[in-house]
Predict the structure.
Amino acid sequence: MDEASKSIRASALSTLAFLASPDAQREFASKVHYANYQSEFACWWFDTFIPEAYDCFTANELPILKEFSAIFDASLHDLSDTPTTIEQLLATETWRKIVADASRACASLRVQA
């Protein structure tokens, strides 16, 4: 795997671990303000885990990541586009599901969340 592929892979797995961690999300939000955290976090994921990057993952990893990505994408439709604080976002059932799904993917991939 070349350096660019390693970097893309590391970035996607790091983003997944971030999405699995409410504490990391709170820490980030304490330093950086966004009007819409869910949109920003979604952009991080969908800008990193793109079809062109699929070859950075093994045949066992890719289905796990694709499944999380599909769940994340479908769940975004249930979230409001209105400004929210990080605590408001973390309190929604939809975001808690995304965090739980990211956590399960991390566990399956043995990524530290």
